[in-house]
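Q: Hi! First time doing this. I have a protein sequence and I read that you can turn it into a structure. Is that right? Here it is:
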Amino acid sequence: MLGLIRNSLFGSVETWPWQVLSTGSKEELSYEERACEGGKFATVEVTEKPLDEALKEAMPKVMKYAGGSNDRGIGMGMTVPISFAVFPNDDGSLQKRVKVWFRIPNQFQSDPPAPSDESVRIEERGGITVYSTQFGGYAKEVDYVAHAGQLRAALEGQAPCQGDLYFCAGYDPPMKPYGRRNEVWLLKT
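A: Yes, that's right. Below is the predicted 3D structure, encoded as structure tokens:
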């Protein structure tokens, strides 16, 4: 864990590879269409808890895995963003289910270490195309829901998006107080 903290404060951070396909804006909202690379991810799924509470449970497990809580005892470093899938109800509120996705760094993609924690799973995911919008601050459930609603409204009639889930993404360690970057990603259908 100490290695993880050191890396997040002083080390380099790998960015999940993607390509911007287009940009747009509507009223005050700017967005990008991105093609995100697939790969192997460490995942943790939490159910029966509101988003903010579920993240407090899932994120440390993923961070410990990246920091060396694995069969090789090796700290892999970080990739950003860490994304998490959320599942909206018909009214836009979120179900009590979240799945955190940490993209394993490129150096370990072909042979990732096995997690020590049984709730952490390694999964392969294909590439995805998303519509993304960015915002700052310490994001909470209400922020993600609001920005997802704004992005969905901006894309309405122009770009079909998947309605049964979307991704939220964070780029910063919890100890970074300013200049934080958060995003909401709607999956292109």
